[in-house]
Task: structure prediction
Amino acid sequence: MSKYDVKICCIGAGYVGGPTMAVIAKMCPNVRVCVVDLNQKIIDGWNSPKLPIYEPGLREVVDCAVGRNLFFSTNIDVEIELADIIFISVNTPTKTQGIGSGRAANIKNCELAARNIAKVVTSGKIIVEKSTVPVRTADAVRRILACNEKGLKFQVLSNPEFLAEGTAVDDLENPSRVLIGGEQTPEGLAAIKSLVDVYTRFVPKERVITTNLWSSECSKLVANAFLAQRVSSINSISALCEATGANVSEISRAVGMDPRIGPKFLQASVGFGGSCFQKDILNLVYLCESFGLHECAEYWHQVIKMNDYQKRRFSEKMLQAMFNTVTGKKIALLGVAFKKDTGDVRETATVFIARDLLMERADIHVYDPEVAREDMFKEMDYSCGINMTNTPHLEKSITTDTCPYEACDGSHAIAILTEWDVFKTLDFNKIYKSMAKPAFVFDGRNIMDHEKLREIGFEVYAIGKPDPVKFPDSQIA
Result:
């Protein structure tokens, strides 16, 4: 008799699949969990002391279960045949060409996973859509599976993730909700119950929400759209604050104390990044366009436009403050990850700021405690279309330093682009002495003590904060 009650296979060992399955394995020792991927390097990373992704607490979670009931493998066909429940957690990037280019998600990897499942398995399975996908993707997966020539019956569920990088382990161990969508048929409801039974081993039952397939798929897009909308909303106000002498932090606090609004996601910044916000909004835009809801599409597209405007505005502020030229000037960019406590660089604001400075022929030096140079350049190519081939001077123009003091030494300006806690503890007296004068600090995350920096001698520019020269009567935070 098997020592496992349930066997789970997850196709895709990335930022969602790896941590999600590791937590399920830790919390459910009687559930066998195997994460599979075609990429041998990624699987080797999960089986090594250095995980392929950085996430606080994840190492401890993996160590707790690996070899007991958590496994990582490239033996995909064997594992999906062995499993009772198969999660599809593959990459679904925004299309870069063809119909829907720049908005629609490319679900090729989901389709390939479904076709392989139909080809390999010899018994019916529960298939769980974990990737962020357009509404009605589950229908496409179900139709592909139904075409199997073995007469097998499959149930397709939607179980979107709501984790945030940097706090993913806690989000998974103590989720605000778990959403499971499926067909409202006896077979579909039975499949939903099977997945509910896994989650309720460690999640209170009242936090598990069950819906139909389409509501579940749509909820994921809408949740991220609402969060991104708040960021773009406060960022739009930050521009108004800089023009009028108001302080965006004071406004955020006043507005956030209204219980109907709340304080979360009201911190002005250089702009949001990450794998989900932009992709999910663009999916939502394309979905609205597909159904002829053009006003709805334009409403949500404005969230992306505002985010792009905020990044562009930050670059322009740097150039304007530095006498309208940065040619040949050393500029230190502190932070590459799109947020602290992660090594993820997808859609990070840093690559867009670096692109703008690169076009102005600045000498760019970058420091991040977790991001590798290779990953930064991959993202520059993907998001900005800048690579070694079309930009021959790229390698020489961007230096990645191993120490923040090296990055700042001799620089004309420092831009804080990720809110890593370590940046707040740097010796800025030492940094100021090593810099060209006037020495500029551009705080894209509003994490620094701006008054203290000004006392040292820096010229400080912060998102949504009043310029003391332009507004001398404003209180500076």
About this structure: The chain has a mean pLDDT of 94. The two ends are 65 Å apart (CA to CA). The chain has 18 helices and 14 strands. The longest strand covers residues 6-11.
